[in-house]
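Render Tetraspanin family-domain-containing protein in 3D.
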Amino acid sequence: MSVGIEKCCCFIPLRLGTFLIALWFTIIYLIDATTGFLGINAAIGYSGQAASAWYYIDLLFTVLVCIGGVVGMFGSCFSSRKFAKIFSVVVWVNCTLSMLKYVICLALMISHKYDMSRSCLRSGFIGFGNSQTSINPVIIPDSPYYSPVRYPGTLNANAASQEDCDASIKTFLITFGVVVFVIQVLQFYFATVVSAYASRLRNGARHHRLHDQQIKEFEDARYHMSTVY
């Protein structure tokens, strides 16, 4: 997959590109994990409400991908063939984990839109201005006359109407799906760049060994010729 790649994004040297890719994994997934812990990440919050165990698995996946990025940053600074090979594997594992994480999150949220709607009705849509750390299923009356009273400092301080909740959920799911698709395409391209860098280091080392062997054979041949003549 890395055949023909000489530059990252057509103009960035492979070594620098590898470092920036490692930095990407570190920053993006550090933000993802941090917002998840703070309760302002809608994807982690709502998918966690659908399956409480997934909340912790999701955060674990995110932290592992972030750690993989940190490992890559340290390694790309030393041009180590061994480390480049390891980081190439780490990047592909990171891509697989992140794809799995996002696909499961999206599937859980789509299949539990009703639960998302009930949660939004009671507490408003999760966001930077409305953090929610509770991942328990929301139980509110089905009566059409039910309307949570907004009261500052309580769980329903940011309660929203059915129309607002439906619009927010629809917009979020569409946006999340598009963004995830773009991110995954980028990350799989980044993985091929890292593989290309690892291949270059490996092939360069092979050429150096061949060059050293040729010099040794030339010196040996010259020595034998001098003894004969």
